[in-house]
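The following record pairs a protein chain with its ligand, GMT.
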Amino acid sequence: MSGRRLSIAITCFPTIGGSGIVATEIGLGMARRGHEVHFVSAEVPVRLDRATDGVFFHEVRTGEHAAIAGSGTYPLALCSRLVEVATYAEIDVMHVHYAVPHAAAAWMAREVIGPGAPPLITTLHGTDITLVAADPSYLPVTRHAILRSDAVTTPSRFLRDETLKRLQLPPSTPIEVISNFVDAERYAPGPNRHCLRRLFPDLGTDELVLMHASNFRPLKRLDDVVAIFAAVAATRPARLLLVGDGPERSRVEAEVRSASLGSRVALVGRQESCADWLRAADLFLLPSETESFGLAALEAMACGVPVLASDVGGLAEVVVDGVGGRLLPMGDRAAFVQATLALAADEDGRAAMGVAARRRAVEHFGQREMLDRYEALYRKITSTL
Ligand code: GMT
């Protein structure tokens, strides 16, 4: 390691979701580089199950007393825990992911600690900004915490511009774009069709396997996924693999059955890693209403799987239309069906697109480069304060 060892506190949501995954991979990467990393969260983040030297976990517990139960005291408990951890572990920098409520809780922790408090980096992820902008109850405090952060980062230029606009920040507010990244060794191409045998015992070798992975929230447009698949499957043999869980899952499962697609569609629920499933897929569908980045698309690309995504938000910074996949008008199911069938019919074109997808993921979204940028940011803000 060049430079002194840093003690870093990372706060994120522990559940499956791009923001928690990115935060966890940053922490693990920093620990591998010799820094000490303290995760401060309600639960152990999903991908933090790998024992890594230099990684510590601090659970945030809210009180169960009847007087405060249900009053949403999590930000206060997080603030108190950050104060403790910052003091006992001599934290050099606090890095919080997702503005609501983490940025405000960390800003409060700095106020409580007073002079000598560690600097704060806030990384915004997307839904945090739309939520704050749409609900004024969170706006003043979150805006303040963002303005008081020593550095603010976003995974895309799209989200940087949206943040400035939606939070009405001065255009000169420094927001650094550091792209999300993928571990291109864990997420790599390779044959893995056998993992589908149990799900689809009668799977033919010429069948097209489509995949979608998300948190099953309405903005992922699961109805589009199922409708696109149904139209494709009516034309040629195909299967659909749905990975993830969330509010839309029961409805989607019922819809699949009522459309008599039960034997062609498998819902495998929440998975710690998508890599093995991606290696079994031919194409990845992401018809979202919006995405600040689209980490799921990047993971598919790293596995050499072409992505068919909506041309919205930061997705255009990840997928180049016609290179590693297709960008299609959001909500235009016919366009998705046509693009899927065209790629299904052109095996060589599809393979070339998979190679291009992998190349783009490796060359533009490499883990080492992004970790270098975060580490440089940590060093910059700890040396100037
Ligand atoms: O996609 C979600 O709804 C989950 C959300 C999250 O907080 O994990 O994802 C957001 O952050 C990811 C990591 O930066 C991005 O890849 C996703 O595009 C972004 N989701 C949205 O903007 C809707």
